[in-house]
Amino acid sequence: MFSGSSPFSDYVDATFLTIVGISLLVFLGLLIAMVYFIIHYSRKKNPHPTDIEGNIPLELTWTIIPLILFMGMFYIGWRGYLLEQIVPDNAFPIKVTAQMWKWTFEYPNGVRVDTLYVPVNAPIKCTLHSLDVNHSFFIPSFRIKKDVIPNRENVMWFKTPRVASFDIACAEYCGLEHSYMYTKVVAMDTTTFEHWYKDVSTKQSKPYQSFVNNVIQSN
């Protein structure tokens, strides 16, 4: 947790811990109240039950406090959702195609690979397509996941500040070999990515355009 591997990871982790903390406080409050009522209103102390009249301040308290807590959790969840939905204008576009049972990544010049190579500190826009059934593009370390559905285009984005490899999985059961539908995001420094991009473009007979120039032109 709190690995800082994407713009969303730390926020999602903090949101998760916040909600768990609030839930724990509510649980302990209910537990303490339950034990108190069991002891205070036991049959030994109250052999003859009596009716309790309504208590407006108490009813307002147990209505308003949970409402504030739930709306607060909704707000932090909504902020995280917006963070993932607003794609930067200069994001580098990559087409992601899912099929039983593999991922294919297509770069702007037509290069296709089965591992997602990206430069660090650059926003990456993934356009998601499926050739057959429902899939789900999931990068656990980045805390992002989006459905990949036939005849529909979904979009997600990310960037990472670290040179590292991160797992990609399919999070939607898609058939017999669903559990083998794994690949990697390989984040490289910009120079290494440029060399890789140029080399693979040459091997696949695709026109090469510098990633750095692409970003400058898009700005």
List the helices and strands and how they pair.
Blueprint lengths: L8 H32 L15 H30 L6 E8 L2 E5 L5 E2 L2 E4 L4 E7 L4 E5 L4 E5 L5 E5 L5 E7 L11 E7 L1 H14 L7 H8 L1
CATH architecture of the largest domain: Sandwich
Distance between the termini: 33 Å
Unreliable sequence segments: none
Secondary-structure element order, N to C = HHEEEEEEEEEEHH
Give a short summary of the structure.
The chain has 219 residues and is of the alpha+beta class. Helices cover 38% and strands 25% of the residues.
Describe the overall structure:
The chain is of the alpha+beta class and 219 residues long. It has two domains: 9-85, Helix Hairpins, CATH 1.10.287; 92-218, Cupredoxins -  blue copper proteins (Immunoglobulin-like). 38% of the residues lie in helices and 25% in strands. The protein is built from four helices and ten strands. A five-stranded mixed sheet has the order 3-2-1-5-8. A five-stranded mixed sheet has the order 4-10-9-6-7. Helix 1 runs antiparallel to helix 2. The longest helix is centred in the N-terminal third of the chain and has 32 residues, at 9-40.
